[in-house]
Design a protein that fits this description.
Chain lengths: ~70, ~800
Amino acid sequence: MTLDELKPGSRCRIKRLSVRDKLGQRLLDMGVYPGSQLKVVRNAPLKDPMEVSLEGFFVSLRHDEARFVEVELQ
Amino acid sequence: MKRERTLVALAGQPNCGKSTVFNALTGASQHVANYPGVTVEKMTGSYRSDGTRVELVDLPGTYSLTSFSPEERVSRDFLIHDNPSVVVNVADASNLKRHLYLTFQLLEMQVPVVLNLNMMDVAERRGIEINSQELGRLLGVEVVPTSMKTGQGKEDLKEAIARIADVGPGERLAQIDYGPMEPPLRKIQDRLSETWKGPRAYPLRWLAVKLMEGDPDAQERVRESYSDPEVCLDLVEEIRSAFESEHGETPERHIAYHRYQAADTISRSSIKTRKGEGIPLSDKVDRFVCNRFLGPAILVGVIYLLYYLSIVQGYNVTNYTWPFLAKIRGLTEAITPSPGFIEIPLIRSFALWFVDSINALLNYIPIFFILFGLIAILEDSGYMPRMAFMLDRLFNRFGLHGQSTLPMVLGGIYVGGCAVPGVMVCKGIPDERSRMATILIIPMLNCLAKVPLYVLMINIYFAGQKGLAMFFISTISLLMVLPVAKFLTLTVLKKRPTAPFIMEMPPYHLPTIRGVLGRAVERVWLFVRKIITIVAAVAVVIFVLLQFPGLSNERMALYNDKKEAAISSFYEKIADVPFAQDLQGERLMALVLYWDDYKNAKMMGRGKEAVEAVNAEFEKKDPAFFRMANPGKDKTAKKVNRAFKGLIKERQQLLREIKKEKIDASFLGRIGRAVEPVTQWAGFSWRVNVALLSAFAAKESSVAALGALYDQGETGNQSLEQRMAEGEAGFTPLHALSLMLFMVLYPPCIATTIMVKVQSGSFKWMLFSMFYPMALGLVVAMAVFTGGKTLGLTGFQAMFAFYGLALTATIGMGLIKNREDFS
């Protein structure tokens, strides 16, 4: 399952990132790394992008970017 | 021994209050420039401490120090190449763990770090207790807690900076243990130390970690400074893939993970949190602000308020500031040589033209000041990322970015913006391709200066459908801009680097008055400095193009004859009154000037008292003239007054005719004629061409230039609307439509062009931004005019047809998929 499929309110654990370089490094630097916990907070009014919370740190990203984040629901 | 100068860098993640620290330390002595070769802003400032001049460089806020974004690259390069004596790492004390991620990277670079725990007040309010002594011991650096918003801890920080500048970095800097990656790191380090050929030494461990991360810039450093670099890089690649297959994870993720782990360990042992984490206030606010229905409504409200306060209210303020500018003009009139009966001294017309050009821009300063202040509030409060969050989907479809929202609002997304601040705030867009696209389309939005021409055209040619026509022109620019943006990103901008959208949604902050005012002043100053000088230069060029080569001697002689005729007819009329003796020779011209001054002074004065004061002043100046100018019941004076009025009228008409003929014969007039064979397909006569050409300095001039060109003279009280309708009998609504559409797509004014140069960092793009709208504008105008004529459409029908076409293009372009950026 990938992050872009999750609905607002779902909590998950990050399993793997299937992208490297610019986007991959950026995800890591913003705290999206395997093992970390994540909660989907909301979608934008036009459905994209989405906002997630990483231990109280709020980040928004496009669904196109979230599909590289493999997660497992909790 | 004391040094004379200490270089200090300020590093930190976004939203850590770094600019507050910078402002608190440096006060008013700040300077903005760009880092060489990139459009990243470099803020520098300084203060004196104990006889030492401390120079502060505020590095851009970054989450990390990779080479994937220009901000991170310049920060990193500065730390390595400029050798700052102290690096102040500003961190948000209320969110320390996250900020330590960057701290560890700084320590890895072995720079002399002082850790500044800022926003201690916020942390305390949230029940977070930090043992800064323990934290300092664990990290091996000095830790200074501050709450810079109130200035608390400022002196401590200055002292710490002075101390570290003297003694250098601590002995026992914390180092991350990368666990199973340590042996490969050592292997790379050994290899590097063997082949290093100088002259520039990088911290070896840092370089090794960067190489393991696969950092392209680090590889470049190796190629520059090490012998047989390819062998070395091959070895690194080998080690990287061996590590990946052995441990089942990429090296960069391993490194990031260990940094977070280290940050977690350290923050656990030095931070105590009393209260449990509730839902942060900002998140509660966002439930409304980013709500599916309420969010867009609030957004529209904010945009409306921005417009209303800056454009509408700012415009009202200019009513109060304009008299000052008018005084400058008046002063210029007073000190330049006075005009002759029909000869205006060149120096006078030049000085007045120059002052008018500059004044036209200075007049915008109140608007800009309010606008920049409001933008600073939006930036500091944290609302900007929310704006981007809500509109990214829409703009992304057209190759733009969520953060294109503000530039487009400022540029005039509906009607009445200004491209200069619009282009100016484009620097916030992290994605270079979208940023360039935004910069290039902003000038096509409806700026304030385009509006007078629209109003003029609509009043004459679409008088029956004013509302609809105004709606058309207000919205058509967006419908042209969006497909053009998409087209640009698919073509000329295709190769420009992009960046991930991923963006922090920072907690809301209450902006400080000082921060907001400071930024507003700084940006207005930037505008004045950058723009005014160039506009002045261009004003000179346009002046020359309009004034020269001037009238031939024969023509001038003809006008002289007319002048003599007018004057002698005047003398004939007043031959029988005693005043006539007093009006011979130079006295006549003196009366002309006196008359003008008197009329102007009376226009400026409001109210009965002011008029009386003016009267008294002029009576004192020349009692004889005053009797003629203000005859009252005096019959003979009245007679002179009437005759003189006739003479003045004739003089004004002569001046107008000369001016018109001068423009006709000028270089600009010739250019206008030369391009007529092309522009005729768009329905532009050469006169319209001249007006459009002179609009290049500032678009307001288009209406003024049309005014001069269509000046009929005989019936002085006709409005420009009537004059133009008469002057161009063949001009139809279709002509007007084509002219308006050309105006929408008209190349940016000089001021905007300079901003494009600043924000794109390239002369080439500046030229492009001038020529492609011109080409596009001509194509559209020709298509509408020639197409409409061929199909026999009226202007109004053509308007509808074009609107449909633009709407189709917008929807069509929106459906084209963006290129896949990441895989």
